[in-house]
Amino acid sequence: EQPYCCGDCRKSFSDRSSLTQHMFSYTAEKPYCCGVCTKSFKVSSSLTQHIYLHTGEKLYRCGDWGKSLITSSGYTHHGLDHTGENPYCCSDCAKSFSCSSNLTLH
């Protein structure tokens, strides 16, 4: 059940905090501020992830290579190194990449 609904796009959420975070996507407001530097964020999870940059703590560890990563997306992209998978392909030259940001830079 998802009783909390956005009045703008009609997307629904299971809890009020998720709806509140979604509503920040419509504004430039960034209410979550880092206590170490001047960066601020729209959602609390982004601030939490950012704080790990200051502490050096890495939450995701590859059991095969012993590499540690800060973000779950970094861990996912690292996993593609093991498989050699490159799911992001350039439509102009057919070169492929393991992450979408590398395709965008290309």
TrEMBL record:
Subcellular location: Nucleus
Main localization of the protein described in the UniProt heading: nucleus
Keyword Cell membrane: no
Top-level taxonomic group: Eukaryota
InterPro entries recorded: Znf_C2H2_sf (IPR036236), Znf_C2H2_type (IPR013087)
Pfam families in the cross-refs: zf-C2H2 (PF00096)
Molecular-function annotations in GO: DNA-binding transcription factor activity, RNA polymerase II-specific; RNA polymerase II cis-regulatory region sequence-specific DNA binding; zinc ion binding
Single GO cellular component term: nucleus
All copies of domain C2H2-type, residue ranges: 4-31, 32-59, 60-87, 88-106
Keywords assigned: DNA-binding, Metal-binding, Nucleus, Repeat, Transcription, Transcription regulation, Zinc, Zinc-finger
Family: Belongs to the krueppel C2H2-type zinc-finger protein family.
Record-given protein name: ZNF71 factor
